Amino acid sequence: MRIGELSERTGASRRLLRYYEEQGLIIAGRCANGYRFYDESSVDRVLQIRGLLDSGLPTRIIKQILPCLNKPRVIHFPDATPEMIATLEGELTGMTRRIEFLTRNRDAIAEYLEAVRTGP
């Protein structure tokens, strides 16, 4: 698929997709005319990247953990430094806190909706 279709299917702008490619997060092939083309798996990859960015991870860390999200999972970090491990542990803790916060808010909204729908 071309970049416009990938943009439509993922909600990521063309400019953002080019940035992802520049950062090595996605890979585009090239047609004879120089246009970018992407395979079907690029849709899921872009959605994964966006989710990771939304969770607060920087692109430099996303680039390193993307191979872990493939199936079958391939986990190999020849350059995993103690600083990188500490960063990932901090990110994991932060994500867990945000998930707990979102879960509490979701549950509160669900309870509120239930009360509103059933009435006094």
Q: Could you explain how this protein is built, in words?
A:
The protein has 120 residues and is mainly α. Helix content is 62%, strand content 3%. It is built from five helices and two strands, in the order H-H-E-E-H-H-H. A two-stranded antiparallel ribbon has the order 1-2. Strand 1 and strand 2 form a beta hairpin. The longest helix is centred in the last third of the chain and has 37 residues, at 82-118. It is flat and about 65 Å long. The termini are far apart.
Question: Keyphrases for this structure?
Answer:
120 residues; mainly alpha; 3% strand; 5 helices; single chain; two-stranded antiparallel sheet
Low-confidence stretches: none
| Gyration radius over CA | 19 Å
Secondary-structure element order, N to C: HHEEHHH
The residue fraction in helices comes out at 55-70%
- Find the count of extended strands (DSSP E, 2+ residues): 2
Structural class: mainly alpha
Distance between the termini: 54 Å
How many DSSP H or I helices?
5
Describe the sheet with the most strands.
2 strands, antiparallel
Overall mean pLDDT stands at 87
What oligomeric state is this? single chain
Instruction: Identify the strand order in the major beta sheet.
Output: 1-2
Principal-axis shape equals: flat
What percent of residues are in strands?
A: under 5%
